[in-house]
Amino acid sequence: MKKKLLFLGPPGAGKGTQANLYCDKYNLEHLSTGDLLRDEVTSGSVLGLKAAEIMNKGELVGDELVLSIVEGRLLNIKEGWLLDGFPRNVNQANSLKRLLEKIDQPLEAVISIKVSDDFLIKRLLHRGREDDNEIVITNRLKIYKEKTSPLIDLYLKQGILEEIDGNADIDIVFSCIEKALG
Ligand code: B4P
Fold first, then answer.
1. What is the pTM of this model?
2. What are the C-alpha distances in Å from 20 to residues 12, 24, 30, 79?
3. How far apart are CA 33 and CA 37, in angstroms?
4. Residue with the nearest Cα to atom 36 of ligand 1?
5. Which of 13, 56, 110, 140 could form a disulfide with 161 if both were Cys (CB 3.0 to 4.6 A apart)?
6. CA 160 to CA 63: how far, in whole Å?
7. 9 — alpha (psi -120 to 50), left (phi > 0) or beta?
8. pLDDT score at 74
9. Residue with CA closest to ligand 1 atom 52
10. Residues 143-177: tens digit of each pLDDT
């Protein structure tokens, strides 16, 4: 079974939702940079305050901060892991590659969840997190298209990427992911 995974997708694609289900069922460590950054914000640290300002505008938090958070966690995982929301740009992808080479744990599969913009906007407005308002969502989608979507091609070329239709109900999307990774 593949145990070193990455879920890619636009904001609201259901990366977090599907990653939670998958990690619970297959006992993998779920590494969500969004959740880890929100923990940092809740802690009230200086870094957390800076991150909150950036996240509430829908921008990407600095690569160095995100990388240091991920590195600290990945170094301590013995079994499998699932990266959710990281990497989000080419620089983060290159840093991840170097880190995984260092710990000798190559990425085994990437799931790219595709959802139409209309669905994304509806889902996020319904979720209603602090960064889920129309202006910020539009910015997050723009940044996804500019900075994150090039990673689809990168992993496609490596032959490890599977595309999943994320427009369907949660359980249907989950079965498709299981099938793709099975
Ligand atoms: P994230 O926390 O990663 O959140 P997201 O992309 O908005 O959502 P996700 O795709 O996980 O959707 P979810 O399952 O929750 O990022 C937030 C911010 O953190 C970023 O904007 C950025 O500022 C910062 N950040 C994170 N990682 C970073 C990095 N590497 N570098 C720099 N900055 C970083 O689903 C959304 C909603 O849809 C939920 O309400 C869910 O219930 C619903 N839903 C899910 N699947 C559904 C389905 N199939 N049908 C109907 N509803 C569904």
1. 0.95
2. 14, 6, 7, 16
3. 6
4. 12
5. 110
6. 24
7. left
8. 93
9. 123
10. 999 999 999 999 999 999 999 999 999 999 999 99
